[in-house]
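Ticket #4471: structure output looks truncated?

Reporter: J.K.
Steps to reproduce: submitted the chain below (260 residues) through the standard prediction queue, then opened the result file.
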Amino acid sequence: LRNAYDNTIGYTKAMRQNKKTIEHLKNNPNSNKKVVYLMHGVAQNEGSQWRLAEQLQKEGYLVYHLSADHTESREKVSKKAFKQIDDFHKEAKIKNPANRNDHFSGHSSGADAGIFMAGDEKIRKVGIKHIQARAPVPFGLKFDNLGQRLLAMVVDVKHDDVKNSIIAKKNAIEMAKRKPFVPVFVVAGDHDDLAVPKGTAYPHADKHFVIKDKNSTHFGTSGGQKDMNLVFAHLHQYFEDHGKRKVKDTRSMRHVKFQA
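Returned output as attached by the reporter:
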């Protein structure tokens, strides 16, 4: 039911949020407010992120929703996302976007796209300085639990099924080789049965977080759960404070308990 609401009424709310951001930047060319670009996961549209966007606005950020067709390759999704950002810059009359200090936050397949985008030098040219990857599966899924098998029954998983898909295996190799040009912060949910914390590990990430709260399901981290959204919004400030500090052993998971 929430998906149906978000993909219809929520979509309208998201488009209004985009318009509000464009109008703010056009009317305030010297604004120092940062933009957080939001990307939804598979089988969703921009509307799935409107609640998270609302929380980010309360924290003082501007928001801009990006559209994605996650049945396409990560490379295609990435190119189309950069095109949307370029178009946004033109519409908002942003000059010298490379000098901006904006963020990206994606969920699930949208998080995978964000990690892929971080490996493209263009990420700096569009002014994105940090990537928040919520519940990503950068090296695909093996579909060895019930939640993952149920997902495979309703969506196209050729880009993630590393057991059976040559495309997914090539994706995993490509993701391992690509090194990000900007800091990547991975956020996993301890109660997520789809993107299990172990499966979210990304060796080039600056930090990994595992949220222990009971709401940290795949559904909870997707942008619709109030307490989780507060955590994600506050983490952006953490990125601001720690984004330039590298962690020596980026392979280790950092378990952090967030109180709701």
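Triage note (M.O.): checked the attachment and the full token line is present. Residues 233 and 246 are 21 Å apart (CA to CA).
Status: closed, working as intended.
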